[in-house]
Amino acid sequence: MMNKHISIKLVLLMAIVIGLVIVQNSCKKKDKEDPPANPFASIDYGTAPIDTAPDPNSLVGIHKNIFQPRCAVPGCHDGNFEPDFRTPQSAYATLVYHPIVKNNEAGTFVYRVVPYQPLKSVLYERITNCCFINQDDRMPQDNIGVPLADADIQAIKTWIENGAKDISGNVPSYPNFAPTINPYFAVVDAATYQINYTVETNRIDSVPYNSFYLPDSSNVVFAFIVSDDSTAYQQLQVNQMKLSFDPDDFSNAISYTAQYMYVPPPNETNFFGITINTANLPHNQIVYMRYFVNDGDHTDNTQFPTDNLPMPYKTYWSFYIN
Predict the structure, then answer these.
(1) What proportion of the chain, given as a percentage, has pLDDT over 70?
(2) What is the pTM of this model?
(3) Which spans in 32-110 are helix H?
(4) pLDDT digits (tens, 9 = 90+) for 105-116
(5) pLDDT at 272 (0 to 100)
(6) C-alpha separations of 146 from 63, 66, 69, 136, 248 in Å
(7) What phi and psi, each to the nearest 5 degrees, are found at residue 94?
(8) What is the DSSP-derived secondary structure letter of residue 242?
(9) What domains are there in the chain, each with its CATH number?
(10) Which of 10, 228, 270, 298 to pair with 28, CA 20 to 30 A apart?
């Protein structure tokens, strides 16, 4: 009986030993296998260090050293109003060839930054002139009356003189946008120039965007204000007002050619006007207007209102003669 138990133990012991040997050999076999190839091993990442100090005269440099710490501060150019100095990209988009909102009394400037021309760039004017419009309105305004350091002003000037390049080093091309038609217009009595027929109280049901009323057999002037970034006002082309009974179909519209007009100071204004006697206009129905203009550089005419605008824009640009 004793021998039988010993035999069973020996068999079990041998089985365990054999299993350990198999496992050990199996592990050793795996250890000897070659590891899989690294698919990224052949990529040359180079040894150039990360540029932590960009060229101080570049867009990235002046943004890091000037725009971000001095201009993109809370309550200033932090995205609440333009220029937007939160990033180099937003600074570039709201500076270079970007039309200005505020001009000086002489109307000197057109864009915030004009490549190669600091003296035509309102950005450079605002950081160097103590009194652009008002006393002590030099930028930045965080310390009124104290300008940027000379080195900072020179860095911005150099960036502009070098072409106002973007973050990739590209010089911007002149935009030459299509003309812009002011969405507002005026229709006034040709004799007095004082009665504005397009006021809210002179519209159907007194709704501000409904058609306005025109008196019968009266001379009125339709006045349209347009603008363009590259063509002088007097050289804009087409300049037509078209009238239609359908707000979206002007293919068979009645056309009138507008003339350039100028109002001298103190109310200096450039506009295109059309004088018409309402006796010759359609009566007792809503008449929709559109204005068309071209700067001579674009194939398609600019028009307003356009088909894709909501109906209130089209009814605002309409009238009714009874």
Answers:
(1) 83
(2) 0.57
(3) 59-62, 88-93
(4) 888 888 899 999
(5) 95
(6) 20, 15, 16, 9, 56
(7) -105, 10
(8) E
(9) 59-161 (no CATH), 180-321 (2.60.40)
(10) 10
